Amino acid sequence: MIEHIERLLKSRIGLDAESVGRSVIERAVRQRMNQLGQDDLESYWTTLGGSPREQQALVEAVVVPETWFFRYPESFNALGSLALERHAQLHGARPLRLISLPCSSGEEPCSIAMTLLDSGLMPQQFQIDALDVSDKVLEQARAGLYGRNSFRGDALDFRQRYFREQPGGGFLLDERVRNCIRLRTGNLLDSNLFAGEPAYDFIFCRNLLIYFDRPTQVRVLELLKRQLQGDGMLFIGPAEASLASQNGLQALGRQQTFAFRLAPAKPARSVPGRGAVSRARPLPAPPIRPQPPARPRATPKAVVAAAPQVAVVDIWAEVASLANAGRTDEARQRSEQHLQQSGPSATAYYWLGLLSDSAGRSDQACAYYRKAIYLEPQHREALTHLAAHLESQGDLAGAQRLYRRAQNPEVGERD
What we know:
- InterPro entries: Bact_Chemotaxis_MeTrfase, CheR_C, CheR_MeTrfase, SAM-dependent_MTases_sf, TPR-like_helical_dom_sf, TPR_rpt.
- It comes from Ectopseudomonas khazarica.
- Helix 16 runs antiparallel to helix 17.
- This protein has 18 helices and 10 strands.
- Strands 6-2-1-7-8-10-9 form a 7-stranded mixed β-sheet. It has a 3-stranded antiparallel β-sheet with strand order 3-5-4.
- Strand 9 (249-251) and strand 10 form a beta hairpin.
- It has 3 domains: 2-62; 73-262, Vaccinia Virus protein VP39 (Rossmann fold, 3-Layer(aba) Sandwich), CATH 3.40.50; 314-407, Alpha Horseshoe (Serine Threonine Protein Phosphatase 5, Tetratricopeptide repeat).
- The N and C termini lie far apart (46 Å).
- The chain is α/β, with parallel strands linked by helices.
């Protein structure tokens, strides 16, 4: 029955169950069943099939947003200067058009608005659309009241300018920021989502594509490209950079911005000779080593015993022991159990990637490595393993970028 629910979620929001782990979906289903006072999965499936409202509630239970103001600050630094350049090019012919999707509880579109206001633009000189599939998080965004978890890092001077601390707790967003943003429900799988909408100068779609399977990723990326002005800019998440490079986009070339523009069309070249075009033979992911080589080429089918180079707790020693004893199903179950009990974890997704690699499921492994990188952008082992997969698929530029990031935490994406 869980398989039916997974297919429903995929058809509704494009969610690839492997990207979050079945345990996350199972936990959300149990949460909704408890809310409805149901204890029979088949009965819940019947309820789910006949209730669009319950389908939306399940979506919101599965999609747990992790966001805060000015996440990836280099992106917003770049946006400030790029927006001024674009505004000057337009000579006042129209306002700048920007969109944030998914916008979650509003931290990203608010960060966009504050960036543009701080750069000197007036509210009438730009328009920001903010879309999300979840009505619940949109209501939070409309309320404009944020807790301390939305403010991370040391650079919090913007909070003094744009928020008022409330006696009952939290910080209330200034109306001048809220009035810059148009919030609405939207689903990127809806073919009519942008019907009648002009193209955008800047699109923020970060850390969404990693939840889709590859065909859906490409489909959504093509939609975003069509909705981007010819000289516009697309901001994506760190784990999605290689996907953009493989699908007609070119990195801006500023470290840690994860900003891409449409790549110039390449002239057709004639290929000498009449032989068949050779394809790189896919290679398995490299083994884990305390000091991974810059370009690992092969790996034994068994997962080796070394633990990942992150803070190690007893559970991961147990998972390593199970994996190296050939009890990979138990190792996977232990990792998924950790996700279910403790929530998203880069280490858990990394181990699920290794276990998928050992089972020969390379696409699934890549999805898990991307998820690990999403949660921990400088996760060295996940970067290295994903780079090896990209290299075996012929994406040498994407592989090199990840290898550089794995070897040097200060390196971001480049052309």
